[in-house]
2-oxoglutarate dehydrogenase complex component E1
Amino acid sequence: MHRLRTCAARLRPLTASQAAQTVGQQRPITVTSTGGKRTFQPIRCYTAPVASEPFLNGTSSNYVEEMYYAWLENPKSVHKSWDVFFRNANAGAPPGAAYQSPLGLSAASSLVAPQLSSLIRGHHVAQLDPLGIMDADLDSCVPTDIITSSDKLGFYGLEESDLEKVFRLPTTTFIGGSESVLPLKEIIRRLEMAYCQHIGVEFMFINDLDQCQWIRQKFETPGVMQFTLEEKRTFEEFLQKKWSAEKRFGLEGCESLIPALKTIIDKSSENGVENVIMGMPHRGRLNVLANVIRKELEQIFCQFDSKLEAADEVGSGDVKYHLGMYHRRINRVTDRNITLSLVANPSHLEAVDPVVQGKTKADQFYCGDTDGKRVMSILLHGDAAFAGQGIVYETFHLSDLPSYTTHGTVHVVVNNQIGFTTDPRMARSSPYPTDVARVVNAPIFHVNADDPEAVIYVCKVAAEWRATFHKDVVVDLVCYRRMGHNEMDEPMFTQPLMYKQIKKQKPVLQKYAEKLIAEGAVSRQEYEEEIAKYDKICEEAYARSKDEKILHIKHWLDSPWPGFFTLDGQPKSMSCPSTGLTEDNLNHIGQAASSVPVEDFTIHGGLSRILKGRAEMVKNRMVDWALGEYMAFGSLLKEGIHIRLSGQDVERGTFSHRHHVLHDQNVDKRTCIPMNHLSPDQAPYTVCNSSLSEYGVLGFELGFAMASPNALILWEAQFGDFQNTAQCIIDQFICAGQAKWVRQNGIVLLLPHGMEGMGPEHSSARPERFLQMCNDDPDVLPNITEDLAVRQLYDCNWIVILLPFRKPLIIFTPKSLLRHPEARSSFDEMLPGTHFQRLIPEVGVAAERPEAVKRLIFCTGKVYYELTKERKSRGLEDTVAISRIEQLSPFPFDQVKAETERFPNADLVWCQEEHKNQGYYDYVKPRIRTTTQKAKPVWYAGRDPAAAPATGNKNTHLIELRRFLDTAFHLDAFRDQQ
């Protein structure tokens, strides 16, 4: 088939007829193509193809090609069956579907296959829009090969009289049920009922025959969609009565989302799922919380009370349609326990997608669910965001990666057929908003959301697909938005014709109730009694909500950590224990870091030298950055703390320093992770190279870190500035997550940083951004007590240590310092009783006579080594002190104060290699001045302000370095700043 299409692509339009044109003629045929004139042997026109693809069943491919060229010249020069075969192939029929038996050979011959392949694409003509005014695929033209009327029969060489002929059904279709032969008219009718009504199915791009046949059976089998539907109630009408002027992003126009989600959850519970993690945007969120997760109605109503006071733990809080929820309950359909989580999500609509996937992966990991049978995810999307936001594509591409797969996600698109005010024809280039899902061969089920029975059936199939194949699936609920973008918006400004139609549209509950009443399934009295019963439930809950005086955020946690914050029922002590290790422990981990624990494993010669160098460092009781990281990870693993390190090329490390995964040089895909061979009862170490994604993967790891506080989850950027494209996750979830949702998280960001002449894209991790978002007050000197360091950590918005709470940690990791001979630490600094040093004070010659020191330079990071080298070359070691601030935020006020008081006669200088408008200066200057009660100015030594993070010219880089070093050590350099 592909060869035939290739032939077609090569040909150019032909000239005058040169081929045999009547049955039985046998003179040579000459055809002109881009390759010149070609002459073929005569072809007998009565020769017919064999059943299925001819050249796949013994027919010579050269013979087929000759036949094809002859057909291109004149279709009548070949047998009619070949004519139809080539028409179908050129029309794009999939492999195996182009052949059809010649009509009239028998009264019950094989089915004409093109009708199957074309009507399976009936989603192009299906009645998907409840309003009846839009084409879901944005194209009002009917594809020429889809039979929608008798005038299309000619495309397949058929006539209207052929509709009454009876054909034998092939095994590739299920429309016959128990029948093996059907008239062509009935065949077309059944296919239209399966694929061209209120459900449109996209699956023919899937390259797995078993999966395609599974889907066909679900939709083609007669009577498969007939069932009794339990009526579902909505929460929106009541909210409309009470808060008509509130933004609540109601579900009117897509009320069937609630039974859709309940069906997916019920069917998944039936298949063994115990835990469902969900993510969704604003629209319908309150409805989902109330009717799917079963959050207490009074707690939702509380959110609308403007007089409600926030409890101490709430922080800044967030709007009601951003909040998350966690609830464990009995599933009434299956009588099984099920845990439902709705992850908190900001207005960056699709940002929650990878977070949900990461949390799902973590829950699967910690309960030993290796194939996703017990834990699953459901993601809800809006049509405009699903098509428009790149994070959707990034998340899909994680779906089958070994270290990131959650074994299938059910995606539900609430297809409003509009964005805020933007028409879909202006918002996407693809026919459907769901086309992005085709990149992972996910089947896509489009369904008219005003047909509850079709919605329920599609959702059952979606849940069964996920349980059967453990792959993603998409349900596209084609609906409308009755109220505009929110309840205070006027949609008639921009979509007048659509909203004129919407005003005439009966709500789906009313339409379906009338249908059931007409069918005799329920009486009008029963229907009205059910509505009144639910109204009463809401009224009672609303009355109870008035008794709530304080909003407690504990009701809105999406990932509670039971038992973590308390010990024997009491809050854990606010202390920071020593993180030092015994000498034996350091040696044991060091030996593992410098050896290969697997026999007959051949490593690269260069790696042998690296491991030998590590062993030498261990022998000398020294560690560099890579070995220090190994010591930290290894000690935590031995204590039973799981570690997951993820990011681009993290297994080896961007700078070829880590080498946590060893590769056998002689056996493909044979690897070894020495850190998983430390001790028999250790926790597992997961180190995984990610896809080339920052936004998606950081979100994934953030979600993973949500699941448990007793794990170390790290994401490393290839270069520090690569976090630029993950800024949404950093701003919305990591920085503000605790303030908005009291959502603690211990995610660690490793961001390589350093000004080394590598240009603006590979130099700066943009520390100024992170420091600007820190929540400590630069003008307030905290009460300096023994527990200040811990108290500051508790109050800040990001950092993490072994403490009874979890905060995100941002580490600006080194590049050149990975191999700098002076950037090493002794075992003595890592033994029991030692702690992390927030500030490393001056300990050299200057510390011996502190009153003689004329200048105290504060700095952080790599510039310290350049400053010490320059100080020594200038002979200023006794008059210039250099102190390193290792923890920038929370700012170590107490230790900076002690250092400034130790050198009472010294000028204060902040030196950095970053530009003045970047880096740390604007953050540290007011805090140092607050520490000294503004008794002294804080002078600046560093690069001048600039728009780009770094120069791309090596010579310019060195000139800038020389200038700021001169400034740092020239005693009169700051007079011009005054």
Q: What stands out?
A: The mean pLDDT is 83. The longest strand covers residues 907-915. The longest helix spans residues 524-545.
